[in-house]
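Sample entry (106 residues):
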Amino acid sequence: MHFDQRVVDFGKVKKGEKREHVFHFTNVGDAPLTIELITACDCTTISYEEGKTYAPGESGYIKAVFDSSEKDEAETISIDIILKQTYGEKQYPIIESLEYKFEIEK
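Predicted structure, serialized as tokens:
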């Protein structure tokens, strides 16, 4: 899985403000990939095409929306992606990670 960008800096964010970013990716491997699960902090809402399998060369996206309402200081948030790669009848787990960071402006 190749991402156009793995780390995003939202810069200064006012408490209560929301920011979003769309991470674009391409399956650069030689086998289909399926996103099994994406986890992040409760301050992050994730959206993507659930259940979709990406063939080699196929692209997709993961949208992250950050809500700063409960944040009081700068932080780096990890977004963990658990994938399943299929070779014939065998499936292999893969873990990828993305990040975004911010500073809280009071």
